[in-house]
Amino acid sequence: MSDVLGRSGGLGIRVPAGWELTDTGKNHLRNLGVESISPAAMQVAADLRKHLDNVQNVTTRAFVEEAIKCHEAKLYRSAIVMSWVAAVDVLYREVVANHLAAFNTEAHKANAKWKAAVNEDGLTKMQENDFLDRLVPIGVIGKNVKEELAKALKLRNGCGHPNSLKIGPNMVASHIETLILNVFEQFQA
C-alpha cells in the first residue's frame, strides 16, 4: 500500500501516524465521485441498514430501503422525505393494529366531522401534524417524542417543496437517527 501511495504524485503524504490525503488528493477523489462523509452520517446509514433486516412489512421495507439508497447517494432531501414516509407508515400500522378505536375517538373529539378510519389509508385523510397530536393522548408516543417528530415533519416539509433550504449529511443523519430511535426501534415495522 505504501508503494502505491508513494507513487500517487502528491495526492497522499506520509505522516508519523501513517498516510493522509492532501487537499489535491481530496479534490481528485471528489472529481472521481468519491467524497468523504462524516462518521456520524456513515453510522446512520449503517444503523438504518441494520434496522432494514427487522422490517417485515413489504411496503415499509421499500420506503426504508429507498431512504437508505438516497442517503448513500447523497440525495439528502430525498433521504429525509423517504425516511419520514417510512416512519409515518410504521406509525399508521401501529395505530391500526393496536389503537384504532382510541385513535378514532380522539380524532372525533378534535374534529366532530372526522370519519372513522378503518385502515392505514383512512388515517391519511388527517394532516400528519394532527395525526401526531392524536397519538399523545392515546399513549402511542409521549409529548417529547411528538415534539421531535414534529421537527422531523417540519424538515420533511422543507425538503419536499421547492425552496432555498440547504441540507447536509449531518442534518440527514440527525433526522434519520431521530426516526430510528423514536419510531423504528419502538414499533416493530
Could you give the topology of this structure?
Layout: H1 2-6, E1 12-15, E2 18-21, H2 23-31, H3 39-52, H4 58-72, H5 76-98, H6 100-110, H7 120-123, H8 128-135, H9 143-159, H10 169-184
Antiparallel strand pairs: 1-2
Helix pairs in contact: 3-4, 3-10, 4-5, 5-9, 5-10, 8-9, 9-10
Describe the structure.
The chain has 189 residues and is mostly helical. It is built from ten helices and two strands. It has helices at residues 2-6, 23-31, 39-52, 58-72, 76-98, 100-110, 120-123, 128-135, 143-159, 169-184, and strands spanning 12-15, 18-21. A two-stranded antiparallel ribbon has the order 1-2. The longest helix is centred in the middle third of the chain and has 23 residues, at 76-98. The mean pLDDT is 88.
At a glance:
This protein has about 190 residues and is mostly helical. The chain contains ten helices and two strands, in the order αββααααααααα.
